[in-house]
Amino acid sequence: MSVPVSADPGAAPVPPGDDAKQRVPGTFVLVHFLALLGAWMGVLVPSLVSVALKVERMDAAGKVGTLSLALGVGALVALVANPLFGLLSDRTTSRFGARRPWMVIGTAGGFVGIAVIAYASSTWEIVVGWCLAQCFYNALVAAIYGALADQVPERQMGFASAVLALANPLATLGGTFLVDALNASTIALMLVPAIVGAALVVPFLLYGRDRRVTEDQVPSLTLRQLIAFLWTNPVRFPDFGWAWLSRFLMWTSYATVTTYMAYYLSDYLGQNDDAVTHYVFIGSLVANIFILIATVPAGRISDRIGRRKPIVFAAAVLLAASMGVMALATSVTGFLIAQAIVGVGMGVYFAVDIALPADVLPDPNNAAKDLGVMNIAATLPYSLITLIAPTLLALGGGDNYPALFVFGLLAALLAIPAVLPVKRR
């Protein structure tokens, strides 16, 4: 495997245009789905509950600050890692394909990061472990999305996007079930989801379709391109820029309800440690049932009407409504109702969360890199919310979760005017 880098200009070979792409079979979508499910098992479950429980058991008094530090720094690492590894996979030559080597590296490195957290005895070890996990799991995600953009024609992208989007809720559901079952052992609740996730990547490694290029087909990467890997010019490519902003706002709203869910249940609703893991699982179950119900039909509708923006409009309104219910809730029942609405809203949104960015990619030469830049819109909110949330929670004397959820409500509603200028969809 090689990734040429020099000061000479050049670009990676152009993948087939959309007209040349053949319809992909169900098995293609299936192995991509399983690989993405594995990636999310590794990275989402710790960010939702496992790391929060590890931190609380180590430092109950300073848990909010420690969790904010770990998740915030890790999200910044993810911000860089996703487009960087996407850029490298766009230009990787290997007899195993362009994407597959990075999937192996990402899976192995991500597991190492989770293991560091599992055996950590200090705050800095948790931060280091989470940074490693975010770095390498984002390499895995970048390679999966790159392979999807390489192969799937636009006329199937809504359906494929919806199916792959199910990986997120199913990983959350399966992972939080494991955490609830393994709650007595901090090491097991960290490592078992990561082991299951690694196993789910194997089918793609064995049977997935990958882009193949040889070294003579890949001109060297310029230093300018390497330095600019985090950037896709929104002025030159306005559809991409507006789609990025809308995605950023939707994920900012979603991050407000997921990042501090465990502490919301314990500090605001008064649940004990065992009840927190139980209700995180039940809340995830409720949300993900509705996500599963809503996602594929919304993707089918989007493909049928040939539009993505109306789907975003509906999702933003539903997500804003769920934030309002969370802000007003005073019991676990209110929390579960809010989770149901979150599930419908994010289920509708997940149907186009990948499809809309794939529709407005500026350059097929750099599909994984540009999708990596687009994925910053989904990772950056988790860093920003850890900076904003402590201030919002401190308003009025502390534990002001309604202020946090009003912020999420406004972010969701702002996603509607943000996506309006996208002309292609």
Structure summary:
With 425 residues, this protein is mainly alpha-helical. 75% of the residues lie in helices and 0% in strands.
Report on the structure:
There is one protein chain. The chain is mainly α and 425 residues long. It is built from 16 helices and no strands. It has helices spanning 26-58, 63-90, 100-118, 123-151, 154-165, 167-181, 186-207, 223-227, 238-258, 261-268, 273-305, 309-328, 332-353, 355-359, 367-394, 401-419. Helix 1 runs antiparallel to helix 4 (123-151), helix 9 packs antiparallel against helix 16 and helix 12 runs antiparallel to helix 13 (332-353). The radius of gyration is 20 Å and the shape is globular.
Could you outline the blueprint of secondary structure elements for this entry?
Elements: H1 26-58, H2 63-90, H3 100-118, H4 123-151, H5 154-165, H6 167-181, H7 186-207, H8 223-227, H9 238-258, H10 261-268, H11 273-305, H12 309-328, H13 332-353, H14 355-359, H15 367-394, H16 401-419
Q: What keyword list fits this structure?
A:
mainly alpha; 425 residues
**Number of helices, where a helix is a run of at least 4 consecutive DSSP H or I residues:** 16
Mean pLDDT: 81
Cα shape: globular
**Structural class, please?**
mainly alpha
Q: How many individual β-strands?
A: 0
> What is the end-to-end distance?
38 Å
Supply Rg. Answer: 20 Å
- Strand proportion: under 5%
Q: The biggest beta sheet, please?
A: none
Indicate the percent of residues in helices.
over 70%
SSE string, helices as H and strands as E = HHHHHHHHHHHHHHHH
Which stretches of 5+ consecutive residues score pLDDT under 50? 2-14
